Amino acid sequence: MSLRLSDLTKYSDIVIQCHDNPDADALASGHAIIWYLKRKGIPARFIYGGRNQISKSNLVLMINRLGIKAEHVRRLDRPELLVTVDCQYGESNVTKFDADHVAVIDHHQISGHLPEMSEIRSNYGSCSTIIYEMLQMENIDINSDINLSTALYYGLMTDTNGFSEISHPSDKDLRDLAKFSRSEIIMYKNSNLSRDELKIAGKALENAAFYEKNAYAIVEAEPCDPNILGIISDMLLEVDSIATCLVYSILSSGVKLSVRSCIKEVKASELAAYLAENLGGGGGHLVKAGALIKRDLLEAAGVKYEKETIDAFLKDRMESYFRSSEIIYAHDHVENLKNLTHYTKKEVGVGYVKASDLADSGHKMLIRTLEGDVDVKVEDDLYIIIGINGEIYPCRKQKFESSYIPVSGKYAFPGEYPPAVIDTETGERIELLPFAKSCLAKGGAGIYARKLDHRVKVFTAWDTEKYYLGIPGDYLAVRADDLSDIYIIEQNIFAQTYEKTKEQ
Ligand SMILES: [Mn+2]
To answer: Which pLDDT score is estimated for 371?
Structure first.
């Protein structure tokens, strides 16, 4: 199940459709495909259904100024190929039209049966990002047309609350590498709210519910554009007695959430993901995050789709989040080793790169990975290790030589997003993998560990600002040769990396 844009060129009668009540991401995505097909000499239509024609002023500006040709239709002559973008064929938010063949390109959670031709990347912040990468696969640079790059950039921006709810590295690539028109973006951004929407925000804030024990607030807003939820939650977070907040709106297809946190004990991205666990998806940053709980999944979980039950459900999730999380500050925590088992590291194959192969010594660079961006300064003794799941961590030559053995043979990357570095001095983006070599991680003194049966947040000795989250099934580990070094090992990595030490 995967799709390339060039697969579409086999058809001659093509219609691109986005969801009803299109947003900027849907418009940018549809526009980009039409743009691509036109380049290939294939005429295609871009349509949307539903009751309403686009009237929001930022979208009207975007359509007129970037030359987006989105037609509002009531009916459609059966096309040879129908491609739904930013939504999935058959979903409740997209008018159903018949077609000989259907293709789907979307970044939401999979909601039902998918056609053979599908490209779904649920962990992406926008559909624009997927199309940006699909164009790259066809060797097309979006920056060759400033209207196209501006549309895709704006699509990502609005779907991630002004980039604040971004988490996937590919989204960061689009954000950082698109050469867009700044003046256009400023113009759309400042036609974002209608007076009615301002009223929705005011009314929602008036009815905020405060929960003092855990210093959080919950606010419900009438159905509205998601970025209004972001505006409300930003404002709530500024209140002195509020450390964490949840703002939500019940839409016909699901519940849209905006989450904020200003304390290091709660990462907004983690809380958002927790609230939507198994019911949709969520993510973002330490301070700002968003999520969507899908209506069908919520109903399947036995929650009636009514205001009262949804209110109660969300309040209960918030309470259980605070109740169920244990927090460990490694620097003043003593684990009772009696409850732990000693494990030895297996010899596992990983990858490494010498930082000085990538950029000049002294340059700052940013390593972009699925887990986040890591800043490092290039020095002659700096190595970058690529772990068994593709995770990245820096390491000094001395530690490298004592803990790893270089081996011959080609390095095979196991992860999903091939890591890249950005030389912040030159702005150049360099793929890591062509420079990667293989090595073996040696055993060492081993660890003491216990399997977790609840959520644990660990502030490690080397990072007291950001916690590592362990969920049931993961392991809490203590280095045998340094008992203050306490950390979390994800259950799959644990199983692949460690084995119980045999009795001596
Ligand atoms: Mn979208």
So the answer is: 66
Mean pLDDT of 373-392: 86
Residue 106 CA to ligand 1 centre (angstroms): 8
Q: Which amino acid is at 463?
A: D
Q: For residues 399 and 381, is the Cβ–Cβ distance under 8 A?
A: no
Cα of 504 vs centre of ligand 1, distance in Å, is 57
CA of 107 to the centre of ligand 1 (A): 7
Distance 55 CA to ligand 1 centre (A): 18
Give yes or no for residue 374 having a pLDDT over 80: no
Confidence of residue 227 (pLDDT cuts 50, 70, 90): confident
Span from the CA of 155 to the centroid of ligand 1 (angstroms): 7
Residue 247 CA to ligand 1 centre (angstroms): 19
Select, from the ranges 33-37, 322-326, 351-355, 387-391, the one with the highest average predicted confidence (pLDDT).
33-37
pTM: 0.73
C-alpha distance from residue 270 to each of 110, 199, 276, 277 (Å): 21, 30, 10, 10
Q: How far is the CA of 79 from the centre of ligand 1 (A)?
A: 24
Of 37, 19, 5, 30, give the one whose Cα is nearest residue 155.
30
CA–centroid distance, 130 to ligand 1, in Å, is: 10
Q: How far is the CA of 21 from the centre of ligand 1 (A)?
A: 12
Instruction: Quote the ligand 1 centre to 460 CA distance (angstroms).
Output: 36
How large is the average pLDDT for residues 379-398? 87
Phi and psi at residue 405, to the nearest 5°: -120, 120
Q: List, in order of start, the domains of the chain with CATH numbers.
A: 5-189 (3.90.1640.10), 195-324 (3.10.310.30), 333-343+445-500 (no CATH), 347-441 (no CATH)
Q: Is the per-residue pLDDT at 193 higher than 90?
A: no
How many whole angstroms from 437 Cα to the centroid of ligand 1?
38
Span 414-455, pLDDT tens digits: 877 888 888 888 878 888 899 999 999 887 778 999 999 999
CA of residue 26 to ligand 1 center, whole Å: 6
Question: How far, in Å, from the CA of 127 to the mean position of ligand 1?
Answer: 5
Query: Using an 8 Å Cβ cutoff, are 259 and 268 in contact?
Result: yes
Over range 282-302, report the average pLDDT. 88
Distance 317 CA to ligand 1 centre (A): 25
Phi, psi of 149 (to 5 degrees): -65, -35
Alpha helices in 79-181 (DSSP H): 127-137, 146-159, 169-177
Cα 120 to middle of ligand 1, angstroms: 12
> How would you class 122 by CB atoms within 10 Å of its CB: exposed for 0-12, middle for 13-18, buried for 19 or more?
exposed
Residue 398 CA to residue 304 CA, distance in Å, equals 59
